[in-house]
Amino acid sequence: VETRLLDFGICSQERQFKIVQQHSHWVVGVDFNEDYVVSGGMDGLVNIYDHQGNHIRTLSRHKDGISALKVHKDRIVSCSRDSTCVVWDFKGSILGTWNHSKAIRSLCMHDNLVITGGSDNRIVVYQNMKYICDLVGHSSQVNCIDAYGKFIISGDDNGQIILWKDFQLFKRMQHKREVLSLCFSPNGLTFASASFDKTVKLWSVETGENLCGYFHVNFVYKVKVYNDLIISCSKDKTIKMFKISKKKIMSDLVCEDEVYDFDYNDGKLVCGTRSNKVYFFN
């Protein structure tokens, strides 16, 4: 059955409660835990804030822009166009580093695994900061990775999505343009993808079937799945919230510029934009 994509347009607008500007270039990565909010920019810096948006410290090691950023337990992992991946603690100490041969474009942390993908078409798997294996199957740069249980998903510049099982190629799926973001649902039965073809799609892990989806009016940079909710951000300056059970966009959050990344938990949402700013929403 072919799934029709519906563009619901802008349904509502919400105001942010705080905007901070600690970066001198685009903010391309944001993530947070129960204590801290972390942002990464094309200025090569990683900034740490409290949940009220107060700046705590800046981490500086990368020689080029940040391309991916994750917070996992008591650690921050940042990847860069300078081909390096750095593991930090929240005091700014460096716990480990490794390299690709070209720019690192994507990062996933799952249990004790750290998985990176790069412009060298490689996916590299580390466990407890020790090299485990490469995943070979992409013929263009790997823009996004996510993992759940024994499954890994990855997307590339050719619009291809690869689903891996036990580190072996399992299924392939396709967008019309570059795949920029992937995210498993909390139960691992489905995953969402975001693409330069302006669509967000939800897929079945078991069958590879496209279950539903929706449009932005421009490139979609990031997507995440929270139970019955899909959230995505775009070059169109919006963050859309899509209710899966109703197949309907429930809310639009509007920023003043392109939104590159966001994180959401317990009613709080933080996003990073092309205008070098970090937005805090309730």
UniProtKB/TrEMBL annotation:
<feature type="repeat" description="WD">
    <location>
        <begin position="172"/>
        <end position="213"/>
    </location>
</feature>
<dbReference type="Pfam" id="PF00400">
    <property type="entry name" value="WD40"/>
</dbReference>
<dbReference type="InterPro" id="IPR036322">
    <property type="entry name" value="WD40_repeat_dom_sf"/>
</dbReference>
<dbReference type="InterPro" id="IPR056828">
    <property type="entry name" value="Beta-prop_TEP1_C"/>
</dbReference>
<keyword id="KW-0539">Nucleus</keyword>
<feature type="domain" description="TEP-1 C-terminal beta-propeller">
    <location>
        <begin position="216"/>
        <end position="281"/>
    </location>
</feature>
<feature type="repeat" description="WD">
    <location>
        <begin position="59"/>
        <end position="91"/>
    </location>
</feature>
<keyword id="KW-0677">Repeat</keyword>
<dbReference type="GO" id="GO:0005730">
    <property type="term" value="C:nucleolus"/>
</dbReference>
<dbReference type="Pfam" id="PF25048">
    <property type="entry name" value="Beta-prop_TEP1_C"/>
</dbReference>
<protein>
    <recommendedName>
        <fullName>TEP-1 C-terminal beta-propeller domain-containing protein</fullName>
    </recommendedName>
</protein>
<dbReference type="InterPro" id="IPR019775">
    <property type="entry name" value="WD40_repeat_CS"/>
</dbReference>
<dbReference type="InterPro" id="IPR001680">
    <property type="entry name" value="WD40_rpt"/>
</dbReference>
<dbReference type="InterPro" id="IPR020472">
    <property type="entry name" value="WD40_PAC1"/>
</dbReference>
<dbReference type="GO" id="GO:0000027">
    <property type="term" value="P:ribosomal large subunit assembly"/>
</dbReference>
<feature type="repeat" description="WD">
    <location>
        <begin position="20"/>
        <end position="50"/>
    </location>
</feature>
<keyword id="KW-0853">WD repeat</keyword>
<dbReference type="InterPro" id="IPR015943">
    <property type="entry name" value="WD40/YVTN_repeat-like_dom_sf"/>
</dbReference>
